[in-house]
Amino acid sequence: MIRISKLTDYGIILLTYFTQDESASLSARELAARSHIPLPTVGKILKLFSRAEILVSQRGVRGGYRLARSSEKISAAEVISLFEGPIALTDCSGHGGGCGFMRDCPARGHWQKINGAMLKALNELSLREMSTPVSKAGDALLSKSH
């Protein structure tokens, strides 16, 4: 099974709160209360987003964090790779990666093709899209997979 970490999931959840009013600043305490994610974890994630220039921080009475750019310009791939590193399904499908069987592996090209399709989909999925409800068609697809 391919899974993202809980920290990555929390990061995406926190970012979706910023899409509700992209000009508003949100504090770590406010985000922790809304999301029910522990405050120390929220603080750690927000600092990581700030260093990656996904969020900007503001000090003072009206301080907090806000998006550094439009949610349309932040991709799921950018967020996931920030936490997980380069996105690759197998060693040979990543950038410069490989394994001991790479030279003789008949599946190598296929893994690279699958990884490329996954990366394309994640790069095309914006934070804005991640924060909007799934359509009825999407709900039906999700229920079939469970």
Characterize the structure shown.
Helix content is 51%, strand content 5%. The protein is built from 7 helices and 2 strands. It has helices spanning 6-18, 28-35, 39-51, 76-84, 108-124, 127-130, 136-145; strands at residues 55-58, 64-67. The chain is elongated, with a radius of gyration of 18 Å.
> How many alpha or pi helices?
7
- Please write the string of helix (H) and strand (E) elements: HHHEEHHHH
What sort of overall outline do the alpha carbons produce when their principal axes are compared?
elongated
Total number of beta strands: 2
Class from secondary-structure proportions: mainly alpha
Radius of gyration: 18 Å
- Helicity, as a percent range: 40-55%
- Mean pLDDT value: 85
Unreliable residue stretches: none
Termini, distance in Å?
14 Å
How are the strands ordered across the major sheet? Answer: 1-2
Major sheet size, sense and barrel closure: 2 strands, antiparallel
* Strand composition percent: 5-15%
Topology readout:
Elements: H1 6-18, H2 28-35, H3 39-51, E1 55-58, E2 64-67, H4 76-84, H5 108-124, H6 127-130, H7 136-145
Antiparallel strand pairs: 1-2
Helix pairs in contact: 1-3, 1-4, 2-3
What are its keywords?
146 residues, mainly alpha, two-stranded antiparallel sheet, 5% strand
